[in-house]
Amino acid sequence: MERPGSTRPARALVVSAFLAGALALFLAFFYFFGGWSLSAPADLVLCNGAELQTLDPAIITDEPAGRVAQALFEGLTTRNAKGEVIPGMAQSWTLSPDNLTYTFTMRTGAKWSNGAPVTSFDFLNSWERALNPATGAQYSYQLYYLLNGEAYGTGRITEFSQVGVKAPDDHTLVVTLVHPTAYFLELTALPTLMPVYLPTVRQYGRDWTKPGRIVSNGPYVLKAWRLNDYILLETNPQYYRPIAIHRIKVLPTDSPTACFNLFYSRKTDLIIDKNSIPAELVQDIKNKPYFHANPFGATTFIRFNVKRKPFDDVRVRKALALALDKQDIVDKITRAGESIANTLVPPGSVGYTPPQGLARNLDEARRLLAEAGYPNGQGFPDVTMLYPARGSVWIQMATEVQALWRRDLGISSIQLRGQEWRVYLNTEQLIDFDISLADWIGDYNDPQTFLDMFVTDGGNNETGWSFPQYDQMLQNSGTIRDPAQRMQVFHDMEKILVEDEVPIVPVYFWVGLSLYYPEKVGGFEPNFLDEHPWGELYIPEKAK
Amino acid sequence: MTALIFRRLLQAIPVLFIVVTLTFFLVRSAPGNPFSTEKKIPKEIMEQLETQYDLHGTILHQYEQYMWKVVHGDLSLSTQYRNRTVNEIIAQTLPVSMTLGSLAYLLALFLGITCGGWAAIRHNQWGDRGLMLIALLGISVPTFVSAPVLVMFFALYPLHILPAYGWGSLDQLILPAFCLSLPFAATIARLTRGSLLEVLKLDFVRTARAKGLSEDAVLFRHALKVAILPVIGYSGPAAAGILTGSIVIETLFGIPGIGPFFVNSALNFDPFMTSGVVLVFSSFLILFNLFADILYFIVDRRVKLE
Questions:
Q1: Chain B contact for A154 (CB, 8 A cutoff)
Q2: How far is A395 from chain B (nearest CA, A)?
Q3: Using a CB-CB distance cutoff of 8 angstroms, which residues of chain B are in contact with residue A153?
Q4: Which of A67, A71, A377, B280 has the fewest CB atoms found within 10 Å of its own CB?
Q5: Cβ(B234)–Cβ(B187) under 8 Å?
Q6: How far apart are CA B276 and CA A151, in angstroms?
Q7: H/E stretch holding A261
Q8: A33, pLDDT greater than 70
Q9: Neighbours of A154 (CB within 10 A)
């Protein structure tokens, strides 16, 4: 057979002309649409978790966006590298003797990135905007601590002058609260209470957070933001103190593997988000110099639907709580050095001593289960355990919990039910489950952010549990001025919750995870709230 | 032919209409809320949000409002990315996917036809068997397996010659484009080989050889022209798939394309975003099938477009 080749020169010409044309077309396409210019150099590249839902501080609910907002905006208070509350836009403040009225004095010389001064009216108007139902701020309840805040936020009153915030002049903001709120200065550091520059918000409407339009008052300004691609931040020249790292590139990614590959190939300096670190790798990398873990104010727990059999019987709930081998779960499933939880409030709240909780006791568990009518799990009704189908940890944990209760109590009638995240949230809200896996991250460093979930018919109770004495104690705690006494009330409340009534079983406390080489990134300190403001970061001398 | 194109485009309208309608009702009837978070949202705020995003009232009312906007070219707002319209998101992400996709597509055609043709000429020899084994692997190994393996090999260990992740420079295109093209290239190779083997047995090939044409001329001027037909048929829908991105490749390589939205927008209960990407994909599918038909007509004179 004759080999191909006789007409090769002519054909090769046609083929290469075609390929060259296609390639030229492709390059042109890439140049115009592909974002050619984005390989902009940055002093620090970090992986921040999923793409942000919004950069409007009033509307933010997700943590990745909260972190960027903290770099762009600054509230009356802000946080340092240790996560402590420090003065931000407010230089100082005083608290009235009845613990109800804060008078903030604005920082002199504080400016927006366009040079306009930051005044107390900016806060007044921004808080009005966040509270106004028309804004649709999901976390507006964080302003319900203001006098008449809830009434305005739910549209019961329409006169904002009745709400407990006043600006007598440009430099003073007077805030009146409903109850003494020990953690109010933590709230003023949250995104919802950050100020926005109203003139541009009004001018551009929904588009005001776009680069080139957004005006901010924090350590950084927004230079670029391409969806699922990158965010570029640059230091705000108007900010009142110098910031060490000039340009930060933020990479959004949903894939922990991709994030880790980036870090491993030294294309990113810092991974902040726990969800951006592959859970299955933690065991292998936990002793590496770049792996950092710190206790974090969040708890994973199990909810019972106390309105349904057999969980209407406190003995059953207690038996399941006493039997659960939590150590097995943190050793086998989470594996990042989490500690087991016998209480809901994570250790680390200043001045708070948690109750003992129910430590593992199999004999007692079996006795209680038999007493409730299910000796060795016999006759235990068919129940389902709900878990969110996202990430690998939840399903593994559900399977493990199911197996542990079968092993230790002989209960073999628990079925698993995984649901997509938003379906799961819906099912939890409707309390349409028997057992459900859940978690809670504290908003601020105070036991109340955990304990107030379980008041009767509370929006986040989701167990059907109701205990009037508990409700009463929470209400009383709001009026107590002595911090020690207030903490004692919380101690007693938590005792009811996790020892006596047990509508929930705490399983483990979280750790915050981050990856970085200490010689390349400084100013990143472990803390309980996992708060690491980017304005505090620096590059150590020897890495330069 | 103009009449045919016109008629086919007209037919596309009811098809797209039905597709968007079905998507909208499916997404809206799922049990979940686009705005829900772990923390319960006050009733007043939820109502306000639903009003802002035209998700209040009966589902028929919502549908009516949405369709009215779609007819005017407005794909409404994303409920997940709260300050962005669906149009804006598609305008930013689709060109990225198309850039990567067009490169992968060219690569797939080039690799597929070359390998397929080569294998056919060496029918049942070692080269043929080896290539077809590789092609079978290419078809059966999913990209979520092949991509990490290639990343490990070329970006992490033992070689560090290509970036593992990101978008914006040409070297960042090589791995994702290659991974994306693999299954398509493999399918095209098998199609080309099979079809060419059939065609080489036909009478007109024997005639061409008998009249003394070189094997090269027989192959390229006569046989391949006929043998390419199934490839053209396949390449229409394949182009629609490859140009609108892949969730696996784009997530794994951090490419800011439209691919991930096909899955994530549904998981996020982002109704308008879901309908928007479905609309884009169906339009591409219809358009590229039409292209394939026209190409058929040009290449194969036996086909009459009616």
A1: yes
A2: 17
A3: 42, 44-45
A4: A377
A5: yes
A6: 38
A7: helix A256-264
A8: no
A9: 17
Give the largest Cα separation in chain B, rounded. Answer: 85
pLDDT at B165: 83
Smallest CA–CA distance, residue B48 to chain A, in Å, is 6
| Smallest CA–CA distance from B263 into chain A, residue | A420
Which residue of chain A is at minimal alpha-carbon distance from B38? A425
With CB atoms and an 8 Å threshold, state whether B33 touches A33: no
Predicted confidence (pLDDT) per residue in A402-456, tens digit: 999 999 999 999 999 999 988 999 999 999 999 999 999 988 888 999 999 999 9
Residues of B in Cβ contact (< 8 Å) with A426 = 31-33, 36
pLDDT at position A14 is: 64
Average pLDDT, rounded, for chain A: 91
Q: From CA A111, how far away is CA A190, in angstroms rounded?
A: 19
Give residues with Cβ within 8 angstroms of A501, minimum separation 6. Answer: A314, A317, A465, A467, A470
User: How many CB atoms neighbour CB A379 within 10 A?
Assistant: 10
Per the CB < 8 A criterion, the answer to whether A167 and A151 are in contact is no
Residues of B whose CB is below 8 A from A61: 37, 39
pLDDT at position B167, please?
84
Is the pLDDT at A69 greater than 80? The verdict is: yes
Contact B95 A61 (CB under 8 A): no
Residue A542 touches chain B, beta carbons under 8 Å: no
Strand partners, A235: A220
At B137, which helix (H) or strand (E)?
A: helix B126-140
For chain B, say whether A266 makes contact (Cβ under 8 Å). no
Q: A213, A285, A287, A290: which is closest to A47 by C-alpha?
A: A290
According to the model, what pLDDT value does residue A444 have?
Answer: 86
pLDDT tens readout for residues A290-328:
999 988 889 999 999 999 999 999 999 999 999 999 999
Q: In chain A, which residues have their Cβ closer than 8 Å to the Cβ of B265?
A: none
Distance from CA of A6 to the nearest CA of B (A): 7
Using the predicted structure, report yes or no on whether residue A7 has a pLDDT greater than 70. Answer: no
* Cα gap B8→B196, rounded to integer Å: 31
Instruction: Give the 3-state secondary structure of residue A75.
Output: coil
The Cα–Cα gap between A491 and A486 comes to 9
**Closest to B166 in 3D by CA, of B49, B255, B77:** B255
Of all residues in chain A, the one with the smallest CA distance to B98 is: A29
**Mind telling me how many Å the CA of A408 is from chain B's nearest CA?**
31
> How far are the Cα atoms of A202, A388, B73, B84 from residue A205, in angstroms, in the given order?
5, 35, 21, 11
A447 and A487 Cβ atoms separated by less than 8 Å? yes
Look at A39 and B169 and tell me if their CB atoms are within 8 Å: yes
Full-model pTM: 0.89
- Give the pLDDT confidence of B230-288 residue by residue, as tens digits: 998 898 889 888 988 888 999 888 899 999 999 889 888 999 999 999 999 999 999 98
Kindly indicate whether the ipTM for this predicted assembly is greater than 0.85, answering yes or no.
yes
Note whether A4 contacts B219, CB cutoff 8 Å. yes
Q: How many CB atoms lie within 10 A of CB A281?
A: 15
Rounded Cα distance, A62 and A83, in Å: 18
Please answer yes or no on whether B256 and A422 come within 8 Å at the CB atom: no
Examine the pLDDT at B90 and tell me if it is beyond 50: yes
* pLDDT at residue A530 in the model: 86
**Number of neighbouring beta carbons within 10 Å of residue A341:** 23
CB atoms within 10 A of CB B206: 12
